[in-house]
Write a structure and sequence with these properties.
The complex is a heterodimer of chains A (about 190) and B (about 190). Chain A has helices spanning about 5-10, 20-25, 25-40, 50-65, 70-75, 80-95, 125-140, 150-155, 160-190. In chain A, about 50% of the residues are buried. Chain A is mostly helical and about 190 residues long. Chain A is globular and about 50 Å long. Chain A has a domain at about 50-180: AhpD-like. Helix content of chain A is about 60%, strand content about 0%. In chain A, helix 4 (about 50-65) packs antiparallel against helix 5 and helix 7 (about 125-140) packs across helix 9. Chain B is mainly α and about 190 residues long. Chain B contains 9 helices and 2 strands. Chain B has helices at about 30-35, 45-50, 55-70, 75-90, 95-105, 110-120, 125-140, 150-155, 160-185, and strands at about 15, 185. A two-stranded antiparallel ribbon of chain B has the order 1-2. In chain B, helix 5 (about 95-105) packs antiparallel against helix 6 (about 110-120) and helix 7 (about 125-140) packs across helix 9 (about 160-185). The longest helix of chain B has 24 residues, at about 160-185. Classes of the chains: A mainly alpha (about 190), B mainly alpha (about 190). At the A-B interface, helix 2, helix 3, helix 7, helix 8 and helix 9 of A face helix 3, helix 8 and helix 9 of B.
């Protein structure tokens, strides 16, 4: 089944409109932003990170960005998990803050260190997903606090090296996709 | 230089992974397709990302078009400025080093790029660069306050809508790249 272009869908870009014309001038970026979405959310085989885990993290990330339409789009991937959807709503509310903050290696940049919350899941999402949500919260709001120890915490929650790479790509890709949608929406509104 | 840099710099840095990259002997045709450029098999960063080759390949092709497509739009120097400003705000010393060098190379304004690295994203460069940096900052903050005022500010300094779309994509892409480089290893 062919999938709609997610950025077009969530910006409201239709064939022949001004933004469609702009995106057509960067066709590789447009096609590969969509290919990235498909690789993460419609993978050939979801090894090392299940589809439910992918959509759950996506709902959480979009929710932390306070983007209702994008959150709803990914929440549709959890149609068969009503309890998880409710738990994620609670986690999003608990995780709300503003970034970027975080710490630099000790030295001249320490003057720019900015404290902020670290996230711990409050609902019973299971140890693997709880670890993934904590990691996703750090990547969304305070990525410069990332550390080798944070990856060891994921490993202790049964995340493989390949699963951690895909999880990181998923949160990082969404950080891109959400900003392209927000940016192009503003451009459409100003046109 | 110490083994781990503690400040922003335009100097060439290494990047050291915190997880084992894929061994070269494990590369299949699907992995080579994900690497896009065979030379990237020499990079620990790309060999680590090659653990999931499909998203790596799509990531790399997105990156290349946003930064290398020379068909009109924002000049390359200012796409790199958006990347460097985003990296400066998120705190990615490695990404900032690479894209500060590119911004310097394409603009011939290395001293201004140094000031962005030293003073941060509040630096006063010139009206056009200030607008590109401010738009990158607004789009990078979470939750973002980016909106029509940022579009108006970019138009006021001479960007057309394709150039504005390029600036949006340049800043947005580095919100992807920064999070990979920061979370899977460190500069060395």
């Amino acid at each position: 089944m062919s999938q709609p272009d997610v950025i077009d869908l969530l910006v409201g870009i239709t064939a022949g409109c001004h933004l469609d014309g702009l995106r057509a001038q960067r066709v590789q970026a447009r096609d590969n932003a969509q290919a990235s979405y498909l690789a993460l959310f419609h993978p050939a085989e979801p090894v090392d990170i299940s589809l439910v885990e992918r959509y759950a993290v996506a709902v959480f990330v979009a929710g932390l960005h306070r983007q209702p339409a994008i959150t709803a789009f990914y929440r549709a991937g959890l149609a068969a998990q009503p309890d998880l959807r409710l738990m994620l709503d609670a986690e999003i509310a608990r995780g709300a803050t503003a970034g970027p903050y975080g710490h630099y290696p000790a030295g001249p940049l320490s003057a720019e260190d900015k404290d902020g919350p670290t996230f711990t899941a409050i609902t019973d999402v299971g140890p693997r997903l709880a670890a993934a949500l904590a990691h996703a919260h750090m990547l969304v709001f305070h990525p410069r606090d990332a550390s080798a120890d944070a990856l060891r915490t994921l490993e202790a929650a049964a995340w493989s090296a390949t699963g951690i790479v895909t999880l990181s790509q998923l949160v990082a890709f969404l950080s891109f996709q959400i900003r392209v949608i927000i940016g192009l929406r503003a451009l459409a509104k100003a046109s | 230089m110490s083994s781990h840099p503690t400040n922003f710099t335009q100097a060439q840095l290494d990047w050291l992974p915190w997880l084992p990259p894929l061994p070269a002997e494990d590369l299949t045709p699907r992995h080579w397709d994900g690497l896009v450029d065979p030379a990237r098999a020499k990079s620990a960063y790309f060999m680590l990302l090659a653990r999931d080759p499909d998203i790596l390949g799509a990531r790399t092709r997105t990156d290349k078009d946003i930064f290398y497509n020379q068909n009109a739009g924002l000049p390359r120097a200012e796409r790199e400025l958006a990347a460097a400003a985003t990296s400066r705000l998120n705190g990615c010393i490695y990404c900032a080093s690479v894209h500060a060098r590119f911004a310097s190379h394409f603009s011939k304004r290395s001293a201004d790029v140094d000031r962005l690295l030293a003073e941060g994203v509040e630096v006063d460069l010139d009206p056009r660069w200030n607008a590109v940096v401010a738009a990158s900052v607004a789009l990078t903050e979470t939750p973002t306050g980016f909106g029509v005022a940022d579009i108006a500010a970019l138009r006021a300094v001479g960007l057309d809508d394709l150039a504005i779309a390029d600036a949006i994509h340049g800043a947005a892409f580095f919100n992807w790249a920064n999070r990979l480089m920061l979370s899977l290893g460190e500069p060395g």
